[in-house]
TrEMBL record:
Organism: Maudiozyma humilis
Protein name stated in the entry: Seripauperin
GO molecular-function terms, A-Z: structural constituent of cell wall
PANTHER family (alphabetical): CELL WALL PROTEIN CWP1-RELATED, SERIPAUPERIN
One GO-annotated biological process of the protein: fungal-type cell wall organization
């Protein structure tokens, strides 16, 4: 969960509305981690979406900015996850042009690892 500023710039922008407190699932965490990792690896493609108007920083789901800021500072952001609008994260992720080719396989991989870890505990 250690992400650099440049990676999070693509996804971490002004999203300050409060999200309803909700139960966070392993799939939710996998989805958020996959998008953060993908943005780090493919920053230019995310920035092209912003510049074209296809992705607006102001439309990011609630709570994402707080998580991103803690990730940038290498802080544990797990306590902030209940404030993230994961329905919004899901909508954003599934709307990306590379969802099926890049994100979904990464989400499934991370989810499998989360499930394996949860099973061991």
């Amino acid at each position: 969960m250690n992400f650099k500023l440049s990676a999070l710039t693509a996804i971490a922008a002004a999203s300050v509305a409060s999200a309803a407190t909700t139960t966070v699932t392993a799939y939710d965490v996998a989805e958020l981690e996959a998008i953060m990792s993908d943005a780090k690896t493919h920053l230019f493609q995310y920035m092209l979406l912003v510049y074209s108007g296809s992705l607006s920083f102001s439309d990011l789901p609630a709570g994402v900015l707080d998580v991103a800021m803690d990730a940038i500072d290498n802080k544990d952001y797990s306590s902030l996850l209940t404030e993230v609008d994961f329905a919004g994260v899901n909508s954003m992720v599934t709307a990306l042009p590379w969802y099926s080719s890049r994100l979904l396989p990464e989400i499934n991989s991370l989810y499998s690892k989360e499930q394996a870890t949860a099973t061991l505990l």
